[in-house]
Task: inverse folding
């Protein structure tokens, strides 16, 4: 499918949302994570597609699957790329190349609830998160491409959730009566 086909699809959906704005608000597909064994967990989409995850051997895993942290970075990078493609299609720009690398650093001591040298709990959150974006479109200036990337990031749901630190509700069912 060429980007002009993407642009047509986006235009159709936008015209529906302009007529019926309430149609834009919907429940997202559920992501279910099921513990299999040891540190192996399988993430399951509502359509049945599953993605196994596991931890590196240092944490008792097999190391033969992607880690949940990698899946997080992959979601950020792929969502950002998709939204940049949307903006390119809407602007009539044919991309020749788009690649996004999501890089970060982590302190694994946080996974073990350890303290730092000052006695403070080590945060397990990803840190130094950055997107390294390569975008090429013949006949389009670097400035236009940078603007296109920014416009794509502004509409990326995953990027926006991270930037805005969306609150997370937690509901626990212990199976106890």
Result:
């Amino acid at each position: 499918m060429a980007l002009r086909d993407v642009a047509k699809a986006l235009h159709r959906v936008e015209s529906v949302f302009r007529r019926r704005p309430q149609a834009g608000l919907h429940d997202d597909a559920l992501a279910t994570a099921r513990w299999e064994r040891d540190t192996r967990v399988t993430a399951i989409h509502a359509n049945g597609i599953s993605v196994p995850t596991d931890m590196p051997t240092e944490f008792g895993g097999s190391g033969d699957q992607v880690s949940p942290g990698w899946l997080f970075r992959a979601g950020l990078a792929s969502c950002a790329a998709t939204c940049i493609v949307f903006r390119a299609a809407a602007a009539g720009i044919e991309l020749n190349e788009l690649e996004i690398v999501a890089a970060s650093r982590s302190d694994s001591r946080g996974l073990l609830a350890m303290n730092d040298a000052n006695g403070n709990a080590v945060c397990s959150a990803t840190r130094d998160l950055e997107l390294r974006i390569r975008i090429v479109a013949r006949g389009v200036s670097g400035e236009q491409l940078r603007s296109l990337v920014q416009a794509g990031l502004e509409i990326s749901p995953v990027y926006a959730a991270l930037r805005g630190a969306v609150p997370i509700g937690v509901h626990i069912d212990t199976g106890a009566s």
In short: Residues 22 and 155 are 18 Å apart (CA to CA). Helices lie at 3-19, 68-91, 142-155, 157-163. The longest strand covers residues 127-136.
